[in-house]
Design a protein that fits this description.
10 helices, Rossmann fold, seven-stranded parallel β-sheet, binds ligand BV8
Length: 251
């Protein structure tokens, strides 16, 4: 059962962190909430309030109404372009500097971890920064979003699409294999700002648990993972993560 210390930080956690030689961190939309990016469980703001992200982020939605899906992603792309990393992103980048072997597994597509200086980042669900050709034999990608409503590939003229993994699509198998390995082979595993619902990412903490790795959950609310977590912090990530880093390496 997690030592639920919603305010204080367990000394045991700090000792484990300080002595860790390898750390794996999984993040979800909650880490970017502090940067003004709506999470998937928040009601989408404004224009998008009436749409369910899980219905828009699918190949079926794109096939049925590519213009609507593209507009949604263009809206998010513009939101993310203006967004800045928050103290939670920077704290995770600091962890990478303190621990010899560090892997960041993110479900987010906003690129904020890289903006904060994180280096070894596995983007499990792709990136809003990039577009890719829908023709699987073409392989064209770009980080330039053309103005036209439904851009086409300059190489083969097929539609372009956001370079993200939609619901019902497989994650890139090489990334998933690296993520499973990093989850099994670490001294400590953090799950931060995720509802622990979306698979296969939600199974990664269990890879750690099955390997005997202690898991820390940092999330505003306990998720299904919480009963297995050794430590639980209910504070906002941007508040608690810097405190954890300074408690471990303040000297
Ligand atoms: C797959 C990219 C199999 C796109 C995303 C039926 C048909 C097909 C598949 C399925 C199916 N039923 C189930 C599935 C599997 C499905 C799935 O898991 N569905 C869920 C809904 C049950 N998964 C998939 O489809 C995956 N692929 O299974 O393929 C397959 C096999 C063979 C052949 C073909 C296919 C693909 C999943 C990837 C989907 N793409 N993103 C885009 O972004 O537009 S997922 C997207 O939603 C995000 O990337 C993210 O992963 C997810 C949202 O989850 P969270 O990040 O956790 O965010 P959420 O809002 O839920 O939670 C935020 C948490 O933070 C909250 O708990 C909150 O309390 C907390 N919080 C908030 N603020 C803070 C905070 N915590 C701390 N501090 C704060 N300040």
């Amino acid at each position: 059962m997690a030592d639920a210390h919603p305010v204080s930080i367990s000394d045991k956690l700090i000792q484990l962190l300080r002595s860790a030689r390898s750390l794996t961190v999984l993040t979800g939309a909650g880490i970017s909430a502090g940067s003004g990016i709506p999470t998937f469980r928040d009601s989408q703001t404004g224009l998008w309030a009436k749409y369910n992200p899980q219905e828009l982020a699918t190949p079926e939605a794109f096939a049925k109404n590519p213009g609507l899906v593209f507009d949604w992603y263009r809206w998010r792309h513009n939101l993310v372009k203006q967004a800045k990393p928050n103290a939670g992103h920077y704290a995770i980048a600091a962890l990478e500097k303190h621990i010899p072997t560090f892997t960041l597994l993110t479900q987010n597509v906003d690129g904020l971890h890289q903006k904060a200086g994180s280096k070894n980042v596995i983007e499990l669900h792709g990136s809003l920064q990039r577009l890719r050709c829908t023709n699987v034999h073409c392989g064209y990608t770009t980080d330039v979003w053309p103005d036209e409503p439904l851009p086409h590939c300059p190489v083969c003229d097929a539609n372009l699409r956001p370079d993200v993994v939609w619901f019902g699509e497989m994650l890139p198998i090489d990334l998933l294999k690296r993520a499973v390995s990093a989850s099994k082979h670490c001294d400590l595993f953090f799950s931060i700002g995720t509802s622990s619902v979306v698979e296969p990412a939600a199974s990664l903490p269990y890879e750690a648990l099955h390997a005997g790795v202690p898991v820390v959950e940092v999330n505003l609310e306990p998720t299904s993972l919480n009963v297995y977590a050794k430590f639980y912090c209910a504070n906002p990530a941007a508040e608690i993560l810097p405190l954890i880093v300074s408690a471990a390496w303040s000297g």
